[in-house]
Amino acid sequence: MQGKTIEILKKIPGFQDLKSDDLEKISKISTYKNLSKGTTIFFEGDLGEAVYFLKSGKVKIYKTTLDGREHIFNIVGSGDVFAEVTLFNNIPYPASTEVIEDAEVGVIKNRDLEKLIKENAEIALEIIKVFSKKLFESQQKVKELALGDTYARTAQTILKLSKENGIKTSEGIELKLDISRQELANMIGTARETVSRALSQFKKEGSIDLKGKKMTIKNMEKLRDWLD
Amino acid sequence: MQGKTIEILKKIPGFQDLKSDDLEKISKISTYKNLSKGTTIFFEGDLGEAVYFLKSGKVKIYKTTLDGREHIFNIVGSGDVFAEVTLFNNIPYPASTEVIEDAEVGVIKNRDLEKLIKENAEIALEIIKVFSKKLFESQQKVKELALGDTYARTAQTILKLSKENGIKTSEGIELKLDISRQELANMIGTARETVSRALSQFKKEGSIDLKGKKMTIKNMEKLRDWLD
DNA sequence: AAAATAAAATGACAAAAATCACATACCTTC
DNA sequence: GAAGGTATGTGATTTTTGTCATTTTATTTT
């Protein structure tokens, strides 16, 4: 198991640069869980006790309002780290997480990782990189939400998803949307109907092809024209 | 100068916990600049070479679109760190910065700080805390933008500003807005007129008092009712 | 302090997006 | 593969927000 763990850790952007013995140290404090679709890993408000990383599968990170509306921050996939904001903070998880595709997750108790970081500047440095990347992405999203209209944000979101999960084919970039239109809308911060209309438009103009949950980006340039 | 520097560093949330000799190390690689209102410290796209912290004054962090619209991420004040995303990243600054109130800024070259972090897990840890806080705040903002309407976001923003800069008086919390309505709108992600209308509404209902740039929050609870 | 200038508030209207209503497509599961 | 249920697409309508025009209020200059 240990050796395998290291292989997983190596796939995590930001951990790639660590030396083998550092990876070894991390793997020693990690435990693993196989979680099936529909499982909630933690709810917003639960006390934040661990940091997670995904070996396989997909997990949605979201927040809900009192009146039941949902915002999906991100759909994380293989190699991604999440719940990192609770490190050194002793705060409740600021968002909830649900497995949307059977997943193997690594779990590291905050206490253990904090101890490791305190003793090991190399590891601390890689954690900083993880944070830095996340912060950059989050600020990017703030800007998009503040300045872009719904079509721009829809285009932006499917471009992002295609970058993360898309497969290059002769037709273009093929993307299996493993979320509903409603959930896609909840990622974009708009209404389900608005996403439908945007996607119809993109299809009509030939930017994408769409068959249920299978999307193909046929003309990326045309899609990019929608961005601000 | 050195002793004084340490006093400044101690005011930075996240650096407070550092030992004196760690602060000493940071102060040794810091330089200082007095910048007057209107000065641009760096533009979005410039190569990111340094991290900054504010001893005094105010700096606005913003992005602009090709068609000239602006989004203000934050107005940072005394004790705040900014441009931290460029650490270990060798990326251009993702936003521009302009001094909006005469400021004394500390500058640490990325190379120097990176070296220090690599050798010193304690300092790395404090940097992680800075990132963690920023990430949390950024994600909070994403949620507000995605789920809140313009009035909710306006209330949220003035509550945030009052928390950072407000002074408690017998009348309520007094806040000197050192930005224009347009800039306030650019922070909220809406139009200048919409902010005017929201503030008028808040005034009419007795939540706030407003005389030019001087605002007093008279009824915080009532204002909070606008949040989601 | 008055005049000139700039910023902000307000009303009227236009545009964008949300909501509602319903038709259509698509999964299940029997 | 038919029946039922759920998800999606689309038109009509309402609501929200943005834009433009104008008045009012601040701020600066003289």
Descriptive terms for the model:
four-stranded antiparallel beta sheet; homodimer; DNA-binding; alpha+beta; six-stranded antiparallel beta sheet; 8 helices; 2 domains; Arc Repressor Mutant, subunit A; 28% strand; 228 residues; 43% helix; 10 strands; Jelly Rolls
Model description:
The structure is a homodimer of 228-residue chains. With 228 residues, chain A is α+β, with helices and mostly antiparallel strands. Chain A has two domains: 2-145, Jelly Rolls, CATH 2.60.120; 148-225, Winged helix-like DNA-binding domain superfamily/Winged helix DNA-binding domain (Arc Repressor Mutant, subunit A), CATH 1.10.10.10. The first copy, chain A, is built from eight helices and ten strands. In chain A, strands 1, 2, 3, 4, 5 and 6 form a six-stranded antiparallel β-sheet that branches. A four-stranded antiparallel β-sheet of chain A has the order 7-8-10-9. In chain A, β9 and β10 (214-217) form a beta hairpin. In chain A, α1 packs across α2 (20-28), α3 (110-119) crosses α4 (121-147) and α5 (150-165) crosses α7 (192-204). The mean pLDDT of chain A is 93. Chains A and B meet through α3 and α4 of A and α3 and α4 of B. Chain B binds a DNA duplex (30 and 30 nucleotides) through residues 149-150, 180-182, 190-194, 196-197, 199-200, 212-213.
Please provide the count of β strands of chain A. Answer: 10
Number of domains of chain A: 2
Query: What's the CATH H-level superfamily name of the largest domain in chain A?
Result: Jelly Rolls
Unreliable segments of chain A (pLDDT under 50, ≥5 consecutive)? none
Q: Beta-sheet strand percentage of chain A?
A: 25-35%
User: Largest contact between protein chains?
Assistant: A-B, 42 and 42 residues
Shape of chain A: globular
Which oligomerization state do the chains in this entry correspond to? homodimer
Look at the structure and give the mean pLDDT of chain A.
Answer: 93
CATH topology of the largest domain in chain A: Jelly Rolls
User: How many H/I helices of chain A?
Assistant: 8
Specify the structural class of chain A. alpha+beta
The main pleated sheet of chain A reads as: 6 strands, antiparallel
What is the CATH C-level name of the largest domain in chain A?
A: Mainly Beta
